[in-house]
Structures are given as structure tokens and as C-alpha cells.
Design brief:
This protein has about 220 residues and is an alpha/beta fold. It has eight helices and eight strands, in the order E-H-E-H-E-H-E-H-H-E-H-E-E-H-E-H. The strands form two sheets. Strands 3-2-1-4-5-6 form a six-stranded parallel beta sheet, sandwiched between helices.
Length: about 220
């Protein structure tokens, strides 16, 4: 398979995934996201490689998704509202992107004949206690059930990953910023708290290995 679309493709994970896909020789890599500034930065970073295609769009827009997916074999659904505090303050907005957006990705992929559709989920979907985790858990259910809704395809699966080390918006850049300001102590929510971290290359490996081996209906 040589054509892929990544929703939320100009985010931290999407950028690193696109770099790997270019290195692996994929012929068409479509970046679908809302942020024109991030897309412009990514375009410059990747030297405007001719194999890249750029779509400004929101997963809340079914028609735009369908247009962007034409000719695509694989969809990676990485677009999400992820901030925990945002989920508690605006759960309705998180629902629109993480749930309704996932439904749009599922339906658009089926309508245009995509072969494989992979949801990027989170470890917070396991026994969720936040609106973000709850929406991710439901998005997983939607993707797995889609195999029954569309038995002729695509194949729908999900991968769960944890906190990516040094990702934008994560705790490590925040700590580094505070230390650069001269602080000798950084905030810790609870000294007994644990976090599951992955390197970004491990997250990309998980995604690509799942695309290669998925049968539909599994969570990796």
C-alpha cells in the first residue's frame, strides 16, 4: 500500500509519521488538519516533498473528508482534542471531534473505498476517568463495530499509545521551559503518580506494524 491520509497530520505524531513514510517510499501522503500555520511549518520542514498533499479540513466535516480520501488506501485517524482540562471544561466540543469526527472518518472511508482505517487511541481509554479517555474509549468501540457495519471493507482497527516523550504540550517541554526561567523546582501533581511514556519512533513503529498486520477489529 502506497497512499495514506493522516487526520491531524500536522501534529507532533503526524509529522514524525510522515517523515517515516517518506523514508519508506510511500508514494502519496495526505496531511489533513485544521492548522494552516502548522501545515506551513511542516511543509517547509519536509522541503515541500512532491509526494505530500495538503488538505485544510476538520474531521467534523464529512464532505471534506470524502474529498480528501479519494484515491487513498490507508487512513490514520489521529485528529483529536486531547487536553484533559479542556475535556472537563468543554466536554461537548471534545465529543464533536473525538466521537462525531471518528464517525465521519469511518463513514467517509467506507464511501470512497479505503482499504484500511486505523484509529490512534490512548492508554487513557482503559478504565477512563476523564472526558478525553471516555471519548477515546467510545471511538474505539465505533471503529471496532464498523467492521460489522461495513463487512465489505475497509478494515477498521485501533492502536493505543501512551505519553510520547518530549511531545508538544506534554510535561517535559513544560518542565524545561520552567527550568530555563530559573526555577529550581517543577510542579508534580503527585509524587506517587506514574506515566507510561513511549519514544516517538516506538509510536510510529506501532502504527506501521499495525497497518501491515491488521485484520480488522483488533486493538494493538
Amino acid at each position: 500500500m502506497k497512499s495514506i491520509l493522516i487526520t491531524g497530520g500536522s501534529g507532533f505524531l503526524g509529522r514524525h509519521l510522515a517523515k517515516r513514510l517518506l523514508a519508506d517510499g510511500w508514494e502519496r501522503i495526505c496531511i489533513y488538519s485544521r492548522g494552516e500555520h502548522r501545515q506551513a511549518e511542516m511543509r517547509e520542514e519536509l522541503k515541500d516533498d512532491s509526494r505530500l498533499r495538503w488538505f485544510i479540513g476538520d474531521v467534523r466535516d464529512l464532505n471534506r473528508l470524502e474529498r480528501a480520501m479519494h484515491g487513498i488506501e490507508v487512513v490514520v485517524s489521529a485528529a483529536a482534542l486531547k487536553r484533559i482540562e479542556l475535556g472537563f471544561y468543554c466536554p461537548d466540543e471534545v465529543l464533536k471531534t473525538n466521537i462525531m469526527g471518528s464517525m465521519n472518518v469511518i463513514d467517509a472511508a467506507a464511501r470512497v473505498g479505503v482499504k484500511k482505517c486505523l484509529l490512534i487511541s490512548s492508554d487513557k481509554a482503559f478504565q477512563p476517568i476523564s472526558p478525553y479517555g471516555q471519548t477515546k474509549a467510545l471511538a474505539e468501540s465505533l471503529f471496532l463495530t464498523a467492521n460489522n457495519m461495513y463487512p465489505a471493507g475497509p478494515k477498521y482497527s485501533a492502536v493505543r499509545y501512551g505519553n510520547i516523550w518530549n511531545a508538544s504540550g506534554s510535561i517535559l517541554p513544560k518542565w524545561r521551559h520552567l527550568i530555563s526561567l530559573g526555577l529550581t523546582k517543577v510542579p508534580v501533581t503527585d509524587p506517587d503518580a506514574t506515566r507510561f511514556f513511549m519514544r516517538v519512533d516506538e509510536a510510529v513503529d506501532l502504527i506501521l506494524n499495525t497497518i501491515e498486520t491488521m485484520h480488522g477489529g483488533e486493538i494493538a
